[in-house]
Amino acid sequence: MKLNDKPTGEMTDDELHRQVKSWFELEHMRQQANRYQMALDCDYYDGIQWLPSEAAEIRRRGQNPIVFNEVKPTLDWLIGTERRTRRDYKVLARNSQTDEATEDAEVKTKLLKYLEDVNRAAFERSQAFDDAIKAGIG
């Protein structure tokens, strides 16, 4: 019997656990190559740009595997630019001729600013940007 034949509400906890685990393992296998490439991209940012076998060969020749990391300063510049260009929300009234509409817009602006501060939205957005720049997903 396939687990997918039953509606979720009719599955036992054990069957549901097996189904969710199988989905997790399937996605893990599907994303394996992409995650490997993402790890390589992060290594380049961190200055790990030689494969262990290449570094060992270079050392056998009596040389040091030197890295002049041009990736990190470039990405750091982009990350800094994103942080410097953060902007706050400003809600504008559709009909600015009435005081009530203008007052409502100011209250909504304050509400959005409060929610952004409480949830640390600017920092979360920057962290997602960092991940996107370094690994390609954020």
What does this structure look like?
- It is built from 6 helices and no strands.
- It is an all-alpha fold and about 140 residues long.
- Helix 4 packs antiparallel against helix 6 (about 120-135).
- The chain is flat.
What kind of sheet is the major sheet? none
Q: Mean pLDDT, as a whole number?
A: 90
How far apart the termini lie comes to 39 Å
Overall number of strands: 0
Strand content: under 5%
Secondary-structure-derived class = mainly alpha
Counting copies of identical and different chains, the oligomeric state is single chain
* Range of helix content: 55-70%
Using only C-alpha atoms, the radius of gyration works out to 25 Å
User: Which segments are poorly predicted (pLDDT under 50) over 5 or more consecutive residues?
Assistant: none
Summarize the model shown.
The protein is 65% helix and 0% strand.
Key traits:
single chain; 138 residues; mainly alpha; 6 helices; flat
Secondary-structure blueprint of this entry?
Blueprint: H1 13-30, H2 32-45, H3 52-60, H4 71-84, H5 99-118, H6 121-135
